[in-house]
Amino acid sequence: MIVQSAPGGNADAPHFVIAMHQHTAFAGSLAANFGNDEFAGLEPAEPMQFIVDHHDQGWADLDGQAPQNPDTGLPYNLTATPLPQIVTTSAGSPAFNETHHPFSGIISSMHTYGLYRGRYGLSDKIFLDVIPDELRPEVDAMLGNEESRQRRLKEQLAADDPDHATDEYLFHAYKQLQFFDTIALYFHLAPEGERGTSEFPNVPRAVGDDVTISVVERPGGEYGLDPYPFGEDGLELATEGRYLAPQPSGTDLGAVLAATPVATQTVRLVRM
To answer: Quick check: 123 pLDDT over 80?
Structure first.
C-alpha cells in the first residue's frame, strides 16, 4: 500500500491511498507507451508487459487487509510497513509471475532480490542492512530461493528464447522495470505541486546504453522529461486510488477502503 503525503504535509487531511495493484497498473501504462526512435521498447513485449503490470503482486493479500498504522490512523505506507509483513510479500510476486512465463518470473525474481541488495548496485539503499537479526535467517533463505529460481528459469528460457536469456539482456530488462517502478513512485508518494525535480539514472536506450532521465514538475500536472522515452509527446496517464482521512484506532481499514469511491490523479508527460 502507498499512502501519498497530503498537500502541505497536513497529517489530518485525507490522503490518496494507492493499492499496489493500482501502482503497478500505472507503471504498466508507462511501459506500454515506452519506446521511440531513441529508446528501444519492451522485448519480449508480452512477458515484459506482464511483469511490469504485476511486479508487486505479492502485496495483494496484505493490501486487502490494509493494516492500520497506529501512528497515523491510515494504512501503513510502503516503507513503514512492519518488516515481517514486507518479508512475507517478497516471494509472492516471483511465484505468481513465473506461472505466466519464465521471462516474467526471472525479472520479477530479480526485482525482489534487487530490493534487498541495493538494486544490484544501482542504488545505495541496501534494505538487507536494516533487517533485524531475528529475521535474517528467513530473509537469507528467501534470497537463496530467488537465486535458485533465477537459475532454473534461465535454463527454461534459454531452451526456447536464448537471445533474451543472457545476463546482459536480462539486466537490460530489469533496469527498464526499475525505471517504471521508481518514476511511478515519484508520482505516487507526493501530491501534485510537491514532486519537484528528480533524476532517474540507468534507464536503457538499448542494451548496454543507459542514460539519466531528468523530470521537472510544471504547473497544472505537467512534467517535462529529458531525454523523452515515450512514443507520444503529451502523454496523459492516470493513477487510481482512494482518498482516506485518518481513522480511529481499531478501524477495519480494508472494509473502509472497499466502500470508498475510486478517485484518479492524472499527469501529462512532455518533452523538455
So the answer is: no
